[in-house]
Structure formats: structure tokens, C-alpha cells
User: Fold this.
Amino acid sequence: MSQRIVSIWFQHLLTDWKIRRQPDLKQVPFVLAMQERNRRVVKAVSKTAQLQGIYVNMVVADCKAIMPELLVLDYDPYQSQKLLLALAEWCMRYTPHVTLDMPEGLLLDASGCTHLWGGEENYLHVIIKRFNGFGYAVHAAMANTAATAWAVCRFGNDANPIIRSGEETQALSPLPPAALQLDALVLDRLEKLGLTTITSFMTMPRTALRRRFGQSLLTKLDKALGAEMELLEPLRPIVPYQERLASMEPICTAIGIEIALKTLLETLCQRLNHESKGLRKCELRCYRIDGNIQKIEIGTNSPSRHAAHLFKLFENHISQIEPALGIEFFVLDAAIVEDLAATQDALWAIGSASEKAITELQDRLVGKIGAQDIQCYVPEEHHWPERSVKQMPSLVKEPLIPWRANLPRPSHLLLTPELIEVSVPMPDYPPLLFIHKGIHYQIKKADGPERIEQEWWEQNGLYRDYYCVEDEKGERYWLFRSGDYNKTVPKWFIHGFFS
Amino acid sequence: MKKIADKLVIEQLQQRIMSMQGNSKPSEQQLPVGLGQLETAFPGKVFPRAAIHEFMSVSSQQAACTSGFISVILGKLMQHNGICIWISTKPRRALFPPALTGFGVEPHRILFVDTGKPRQTLWALEEALKCNAVTAVVGELNELDFNESRRLQLAVEQSRVTGFIHRFRPKNTGAVACVSRWKITSLPSITPDGLPGIGFPRWHVELLKVKNGMPCEWQVEWCSKLGLKYIIQTDHLINASKTA
Assistant:
């Protein structure tokens, strides 16, 4: 995909800013001037003053001659940069990639951003409208290259600010050579030769142009037409959470890998700490000298930036790395990073510290054993015993519904009920004896039945009548009869052991 | 005068031996756990918290009783928002969490870990026992040798976590470095006034071995409202003297 660059030009950046600060200046023609070699020189002109024929680099005395009522204010050479920085920060809402274009412009890399504002026309329109609303007179243009956008923005037609891909030549042709940001010397020479538009020299042989005007003209032209890449340095670099470490000699011992990992983790955690972040997933890639890449990965249950803890998680996997002839380069990549508020462990109550210790323990267990084998249980609103608990991946503060304690439930529940043979005096009575795995159990006492119906919306089948029974030794069992005696002989099962 | 001096020396020696064996001085420990008479069998008449307790069971029924009895102690230990880690070796973890409410334990405060191999269970046990944010750790495994139990005991001496090892059908019942060895079997329940149905669970609790304490036996009844009720207590020593 081609790049789309927006160039914004603030025509009266400093004076507009002054007016914004002091609204009554709006009607008054004024200039900003600075002392330069024994005279005051105009550095910025307000719109009203410009209409009177006052321009930049005039001497204040001359201006006063044209316009005695002209207001002269002090010019601060650092003001424009400060202002542009603030404006660039503000422009981050339109694209994450904003570049300063000194002295009075901004460059926005809008690739892939415009559709969020409903197309390129609307995108530009919104930006211009917002700036006009602030009181800044702006011109903006969009093109595939920064140089073309810059040229069209300053010298082009405001009615047609969007240059489609492939239309650069056509857009640049009518513009004056100054639109290419050439040196004053080259501009002078072009002027002298009567080359007043870009089209007049664009088609000339390159060798002739190079001989007459130097390489710089060709480079500028190439950049404008997209033949040469122009790199824009973003104001806020988009840096991934990644740390790299090159080793002087190939590393092939576990201790070497551990040292490398510790160093990487410490720098990464420092950065995470600085940005109030914690990592959830982290990968160590080891680049071997034979071109092979060895990877190990860890995950945490909650965002963490505790280097020692993360190292422990990695430690279990270090043995999986095959260094072979040696590892020359390590990359530590935090793939998933989440916000983690800075904690002041010393000041907070023990609660949070112990919670942290528990999560760290859980991370270690998950790292070694696997997440599927570590769980916590909360109650579910089902009577059916197998469905009465729900697995949770980690500890919960308080379950949504309370645990039921009013019904007898066995301490040990069999995963699947096991078939037993029984002798029952009459229907709906508990059995007198039962045989489980070839052993006879004589029942002395019994409680029940507790009928648990099938949940028809979950599954079809027979209901269960549960009995708690106790044999002569005092051992207790949870038995149930599946269905009733009406049509067929029902089956009996053992489902658990009471304490 | 000399007698008193001797007694002092012997007491000091006893203290030193106890601390070497991993039993902290009774004065260091806090209040009794709240198990009543049961605690009198231990040194200082306090149930040792920073220690490993070993339970043995040979049948599924006994295992269920043992789980119940462990849960009773857990209920006492976890009263102040404690967290428990319950580690078992696959495929055997029969515990049904909702039943724990009957023993005064909130099941959602327990983290269950199921490992594939006994070695992993031991590793997880040691990791959990080293974490001092945990109140208690229950481990279900079959075999435990002296060295392994020593490692676990050393871990709890640092972290002050209570450990319970529940050994189901162990092949080897040799000496281990645990503070105590228990065996729990069921007793027929008794309903008041001969009412039909099942009464509260009753257990025969045998404290087979205890470091610096008195091996003892009790018959107890558990009621979720009233707690542990002691019916009969018999000291092994008294039994032994009677038979002699």
C-alpha cells in the first residue's frame, strides 16, 4: 500500500497564536520583530498587516514608513518550535505518526487512517476546520509523497488539495521551482534561465540538470515523484516492547543463557515499570550461529513486571533450548502488555502482597503443569451433582451465589457413578445390602430419598433418587436409583463416599 | 538446689533438640488452632502449624474420612481468609468441593492442582509450601520417602505453612520427617433417642506418631454447628501399660 502524507502549513503561525492569546489584536495590523545587526527585522506578519504590503524580513523602520500605526511586538525564536510540538501532539488524534516540519508546518502520515473519518476529503476537511476553529489559518494537502504534499499545500490550488496516486507529475507541473524546497542559489539560477515552473525543467535530461544545478535538484525531484524514499521521523516513535542482546562469543551453556535472560528481563522490566505496564506473554528467541531460531515462551495470570518472578517462569523452559554450536543473539519480546498500576508494596496492606505471592505461585505452577490442570471451583445453580460446580481458572474473591450447605453431599464423588447390585425390600425404600466390586455391604442406617430431577433443558434421562446409607462399620455411601419401579427394574449406582 | 539446676539443663536441652527437629518453641507459636483435646497430644499443647502432617488411608471409605478430618483442621486454619492449595496426582482426586462447606471450609478459597506424575506433585508441593501467602497445603500421593519428606519439612520451617500429606494405599510406611502420622477410620453414628436415619459422622482418630508428643486415640463426632465433640480419649501409653 502506498503512503498517504498530509502536509499542513500554518501561514501565520505565530501571529495567529498571538491573536488567540489576545483577541483584541485581531483587528490591529501587527508584526513580530527581532533585533538583527543594529536594526529590527520583521519575522512574522499578521494577516491584516500582510494585506497592507508588509512581508517577512522587512526592516521595521520601512514598515513604519508604509504604515505608521503598525504595532511591533517581540519575536521569540523558540516560540514556533514549542507551538508546533504542542500542535503535533494534538494531531496524534488523526494519526499516530506525526512529524514536525519546521518552521511552520506539520507532516502527518495518514496511511490507513482516513477511512475512520469517512474518506480523504473529509479527513482533510475535518483537520482544516478544527484548526480554523482554533483561529489558525491553515492550508493542507495530501499526496503519496511528503514533498508533493508540501508543494501543493504551499503553492497549489486550495480547491484541489488531494493528489491521487500517479498524479504527482501533473500536480507539480504548474508550480514554481520554490515548491521543491530548493536552495536559494539553485532557485536564483533557475530564475535567471527563465525556468519559472517545474514543468519547464522536469522533462530535461537528468545529466544536463545535474551539471547545471547539482545533485540536490534531482534528489528533490525524485522525492517529490516518489522515485526516492523519504523517511519521516515520527514525533513519538512506536517502539515495541522488545529487548535485544548480542553476545560477543557464541553462547552454548545454560548459565550463559540465564545471564542473558536476566539482563534482558531487567531492562524490559525497567521500561515496563517506567510506563506502568505489566506483561502477560513473553517470548525469548535465541538466534543460533547456524541460522536456527530457538524459542521459549511464558505467560502470566496477571500483568507482571517482576524480573525475578518472570525469570523463574522462564527457568523451567531453559532446558528446552538447544544451543548447538552457540547462540549469538537474544531477543526478548513482550507480545502482550497490559496496564499495571504502580504499586507501593511497602505501604499497602499485606493483602495485596500475599495476593501477588499467590498469583506468582500460580504462574509457576501453570508454567510447569499447564493451565488446564489448575482450577478453583464456584457453585452453579444446578441440583444435578455433576453440574453443581463450575471450574474457574484462578481464585475468586467471592462466588456469585453462595454455597449450599443444607443437603448432604459426599466428600468424595466418583467421576462416573458405578453400577451396584442391591436388595431392596420394597419400592422407594433404601436397600438392605449392596454389592460393589464384589464386596457385600450390609446397610444398618439410611436416609433419603432425595430426588434430583433431570434438567430437561440440559439433557434427557431418568431422575435419580439419592440415599445416604451407613454400613455396620460406620462407613457411609451415597447411592442412587435411576428411575422407578413402574415399568422396568431400575438400576442402582454408587456415587460417592461420605466422611 | 541441684535438682532444680538439673531440671533447667534438661529443659534447655529439650528445647534445643526440638528446634533441631524442626519444632519451634511453643512460646513462639500463637494461639491454639481450636481443635480442643486433640491439641493436648502435641508439644506445648498446641497443634503445630509450621509442620507437615501425614495421613494414611487404605480404602476409599477411609480416604473419604481422612479428607473430612483434614477439612475440619483446614476450616480452623483458614478462618481468616486463608488460601489453601490442594495438590493431587492424576487420576485420583475424588474430593467433591461442595462437601467442604459442611466442614467449615469455603471451597472457593482452595486452588486445586492435578499433576500427571508423583514427581510433579512433589515439586508443586514444595513450591506451594515455600509460599508464605498460603495458609495450608494438602498433598495427595502414594509414596513419600524420608528425603522427600525432609525437603518438605525444611520448606515449611521457613514459610510457616501447614502441610497435610494424604497417602492413599502406601507401599512403604517407613519413617518420614513429618511431625505426626494420623489414621482416621469411621465409626457407626448414633442418632439421638434412637431416631431413624443417619447421625453426625463419627471417626476413630489415631495419632500414631508425634514428635515430642503423646501418641493418642480419640473417638470424635463432627457436627457442622457444634464442631468437634470428643467422646473417648485413650493414650497409647496407658493402653500399653494396661496390656503389660
